[in-house]
Amino acid sequence: MQDIKNRDFTSLISNKIHYTQRNKIASYFVSKKQNISLSFSEEELIIFYHLLRFGYFDKEIVDLIYTAVTRKSKTPNSWFYRLVGKVNHPILACSDARSGKRKIYYLNKGFSTWLLTMIKGIDKIRLLTTTTEYDRSVYSIVSNNLLGGKPQTVNIHDLETRRLVAKILNKLFFKNQDKSVYDLNIQVVFPISRVNLLMVPDAVVFVNDSPFFIEYDRATERQTILLSKIFGYAEEPAFENSSLFFVFENSRKDNTQVSQRLMNFLEYVNEVEVEGVTGHDMLKRKNISLFSQTTTNASDVIVEIIQERMFSNHKDWCDCEAYDFSEFQKIDYLVKEISEPLDDDKFQLSAVVETDSWELKEYPMVTMTYIKSDLIPHLTSLYEEFSIEYEHMIIVFPKEVLPEKIKLPFDDYFLIVYR
Questions:
Q1: Of 191-200, 259-268, 373-382, which gets the smallest average pLDDT?
Q2: Where do the DSSP E strands lie in 236-316?
Q3: Is the pLDDT assigned to residue 22 strictly greater than 70?
Q4: Mean pLDDT of 202-224
Q5: Cα–chain-centroid distance for residue 209?
């Protein structure tokens, strides 16, 4: 990488950039002897930079990144397969690694070096890389051995993590059609370097330089090990004031209920003490927000949380048509109106509900993130404080959580709606 930094990029680029094809700004020689080259656009260089950071990938991941960056509905097969080949082609297939029937691919080392050279000479793209590429960065290409070439190992845990992150990247791009690649500046990392960092997350998604950390669980570790990770994150200064997502793989056919493993994890975080302190207490001290999802809806829910934190899109909370009231229909209740109470009220929203006896009653509405670590304690606190004052309370979850549904404590008191 140091050699790349010290090269004369002006001369390199003058020799390698051609303008013979529309929108193509750089050419890579597959064979100089036979004068065979491939030309790439600015978008394509960004796609390859993302693929380089993934280390290895399958066709699904390529499709997700391609359609995200280009904002197209699908990846042309002709585009992908012209890049796959032997020896000097940009993309090579792992001969000894597969995921079921799916082939695993990686970027050719020589092509990766060329790609980094090109990016260094194109200011718009180079500026995107400064999120991770700086001196002593634990998330840089060099620190994480991402200079291309065949991966030493490919395991299902790391591959599934990459698939999840590719879905998150794709959905963030499509959720923000009004923003360019440069406005969003989404960068992903799958860290392996423990230099200057004791806790190494499975993945990090950067959005405009803000990191979101991901742990992926395939039910291979004991709950005590998972809990120890929580304390590890809380003790590391690098993770203060951040968001941490624990994603639990759901291999069951029934995806309508939250896995018991996830609920047990939250119970450990909130109730198990280490030297008199719970994991929840430690996270709160360091202002770390912990969220847990299953793979049923993880990418959708994580994107919704990132969207709220980074872009704070205004929502009309009083628009009844924006809500899913299917749970109300089961008990024959009808929401007539949603309003924002006065500023001095205890709640931001309230609903006028027609009950099964045709009475009109007003219930407070509380919006909640799914599934934040303190969800159950928070609901318990609300019940203890307000159950005498209000007959029911309405909990609003984002619609992205469906079809999965969580069983709440005091479920005869709390009514759930989705927005």
A1: 191-200
A2: 243-248, 273-274, 277-278, 289-294
A3: no
A4: 96
A5: 14
Backbone torsions φ then ψ of 175, nearest 5 degrees: -75, -20
* 346/364 Cα distance (integer angstroms): 9
Q: Which two tokens stand for residue 218?
A: 């395939």
Specify the 3-state DSSP secondary structure of 304. Answer: helix
What secondary structure letter does DSSP report for 400? G
Distances, alpha carbon 331 to alpha carbons 24, 328, 356, 412, in Å: 61, 5, 7, 11
Q: Tally Cβ neighbours within 10 Å of residue 77.
A: 9
Q: Please report how many Cα atoms fall inside a 13 Å half-sphere around the Cα of residue 251, on the Cβ side.
A: 5
Q: What is the pTM of this model?
A: 0.90
Give the residue from 350, 330, 357, 332 showing the smallest Cα distance to 392.
Answer: 350
Q: Is 69 left (phi over 0), alpha (psi -120 to 50) or beta?
A: alpha
278 strand-pairing partners: 273
Closest CA to 220 of 261, 178, 270: 261
Is 355 in contact with 333 (CB distance < 8 Å)?
A: yes
Find where tokens 């009808």 sit: 334
Cβ-based neighbour number of residue 308 at 10 Å: 13
- Residue-by-residue DSSP string for 346-386: S-SEEEEEE-TTS-EEEEEEEE--TTBTTHHHHHHHHHHHH
Amino acid identity of residue 364, one-letter, is P
